[in-house]
Structures are given as C-alpha cells and as structure tokens.
Design goal:
This protein has about 190 residues and is mostly beta strands. It has one helix at about 170-190; strands spanning about 1-10, 15-25, 25-35, 40, 50, 60-65, 70, 85-90, 95, 110-115, 120, 140-145. The strands form four sheets. It has a four-stranded parallel beta sheet, with no helix packed on it. A three-stranded antiparallel beta sheet has the order 1-2-3, with no helix packed on it. A hairpin with a 3-residue loop joins β1 and β2. The longest helix is centred in the C-terminal third of the chain and has 21 residues, at about 170-190. The protein is globular, with a radius of gyration of 21 Å.
C-alpha cells in the first residue's frame, strides 16, 4: 500500500516530499527536498539598450547571464535586492558608470564577471567583491581598487564614454514575458508528465 503524505511549499521554491511504501515485509521511506533554481541566460543575443530596472524585482533569481550583448547604461542601482543571486555575468557589453554599492549586499554571489565594459570609479571595498579574481573586472579602464592593481586617486573624476539613446527589444516587457513564459512552460511540462 503506497501512501504519499505531504508536499509543503518552502521559501525559494523548495519542496519537501515524503513518500512511504509498504507491502508485506518490504517497506521504504523516501524523503527528498526539491529546489527549483531560477536562471536567466540571455547571453550572445545582440541585445542593446539599458538593463531594465525591473530586473531588481526577480527576487528568486539565482543566475543572471547577460554577457556578450550590446547593453548600455548603468548596472541597476538596486541590484542588491537579488539576494539569492549566485552567478552574475554582465561581461562584454557597453555598460558605464560605477559598480552599485548594493551589489555588496548579495552575500551568496560566488561568480561575478563585469569585464570588458566601460565601468568607472572604485570597486566597493570591505566586501566580497575583493575576493573575485582581477579578471572579473578587466578591460574597464576607469575602474580602480582591489583586486585590480590600479589604485584609486581621490579627487580625480572618472571619464565615462558618451552613450547614445537607443530604443531596443530589450525592454521591461521582454524580461517579464520571458520569465512568465519560462515558469508557465516549466509547470506545463510537469503537468504532462
């Protein structure tokens, strides 16, 4: 006689499943924790425009890869709201400005690549951002501070490249529809199994 006891919802889309099976002298218990990690990989898509500020509202996001596009503008100032983020790759774009201080609030971040952009100013100090290899920041000529060898000089304003205004496919609606499409498709495939 098979008996399925519980499916409980925990934060960050993790589920606890407890299943017991008994028949004659044979019995077993199966306990499993299933975690659904949300990732967005839109690398190498030739997107242009700015990273939408609404990306900050995807609180459960574990991995974000927007590398190898033509994104402009700044890193959203409240990117630190993505407290579950473990992987962030914004490399090989045209991103300008400084690294937002809020990025230091993401204590789970284990992979960061901001290389090959036009970032400027000091890398926020006293945080895990210094624990990443210097290659995570390379080819940002106006960026300074550890782990880079280039020291910051106080009173010297950074030179930011001039950026053009560009309307693009990479808009708020695109992010929202992509996320919803993934979620609906994922749950739909589970329902057909």
């Amino acid at each position: 006689m098979a008996r399925k006891t519980s499916l409980k919802d925990y934060p960050q889309h993790s589920y606890f499943v407890n299943t017991s099976y008994e028949e004659g002298d044979i019995s077993y218990d199966l306990n499993a924790i299933l975690m659904w990690k949300e990732s967005i990989d839109l690398s190498s898509n030739n997107f242009s425009g700015e990273i939408p500020a609404e990306i900050e509202d995807l609180f459960e996001l574990i991995s974000l890869n927007l590398s190898r596009n033509n994104l402009r503008g700044q890193i959203p100032s409240n990117i630190g709201k993505l407290a579950s983020l473990e992987f962030l790759d914004l490399s090989r774009n045209q991103i300008v400005g400084s690294i937002p201080w809020s990025l230091t609030q993401i204590d789970r971040l284990s992979m960061l690549d901001l290389s090959h952009n036009h970032l400027s100013g000091a890398i926020p100090t006293g945080t895990q951002l210094q624990s990443f290899n210097a290659s995570s920041y390379e080819d940002n000529f106006d960026l300074c501070g550890a782990p880079l060898e280039k020291l910051c000089v106080e009173g010297e304003p950074p030179q930011e490249p001039i950026q053009e205004k560009d309307d693009s496919l990479f808009t708020r609606g695109f992010y929202i529809s992509t996320t919803f499409g993934f979620v609906i498709g994922f749950w739909g495939s589970l329902g057909q199994s």
